[in-house]
Amino acid sequence: GQNIDQPTEMTATEGAIVQINCTYQTSGFNGLFWYQQHAGEAPTFLSYNVLDGLEEKGRFSSFLSRSKGYSYLLLKELQMKDSASYLCAVPDSNYQLIWGAGTKLIIKP
Amino acid sequence: IAGITQAPTSQILAAGRRMTLRCTQDMRHNAMYWYRQDLGLGLRLIHYSNTAGTTGKGEVPDGYSVSRANTDDFPLTLASAVPSQTSVYFCASSDEATGANVLTFGAGSRLTVL
Lengths: 109, 114
Description:
The complex is a heterodimer of chains A (109) and B (114).
Chain A: E1 3-5, E2 9-13, E3 18-25, E4 32-37, E5 44-49, E6 53-57, E7 60-65, E8 70-75, E9 84-91, E10 97-99, E11 103-108
Parallel strand pairs in A: 2-11
Antiparallel strand pairs in A: 1-3, 3-8, 4-5, 4-9, 6-7, 7-8, 9-10, 9-11
Chain B: E1 4-7, E2 10-13, E3 19-25, E4 31-37, E5 44-49, E6 56-57, E7 64-66, E8 76-78, E9 87-95, E10 99-105, E11 109-113
Parallel strand pairs in B: 2-11
Antiparallel strand pairs in B: 1-3, 3-8, 4-5, 4-9, 5-6, 7-8, 9-10, 9-11
């Protein structure tokens, strides 16, 4: 079966850096996705990793280690608008996404 | 504005009633999906359609049905609603050109079954 684990909630300070971890178990591997979801809104796509290493996209970076079944999302220079839930997802054997429960990130001034 | 439109935005429904959630996209995406999102749980796939005329079952299909008569529309029907179907429902779409799992979501439909 497939399983995705991420912390339920994290708190960080405006201007700081935060790392949101995701561990997964899959029978095969077809990439790992991160989405952002503000409260009361729809999820929006952030990043996709299929190879090991760090993918940087502005203030957000995503890292993948396939051998460890591990990814993290790194958010730098945190802004209040980054307060949201961050969802980790991996495709199943039918290429449909299996989602983690999400990590709620609270940014404090 | 290109995207996905869902209706209704919210609905309170008596148990046993039939309900159809509407979803329309104007991006000409091939694939469409219906998810439900419940507190403390990840998004769970109900049904999907890889192309017009085809549908498939997701993780939690029981009590729901879908149809895909054309590219743009993907309605979700609850034949006889039950309280456990109280949830926020998201419709999404994707296209191979932008990535099969790079999903565009609608704003969601909040359904309460009493």
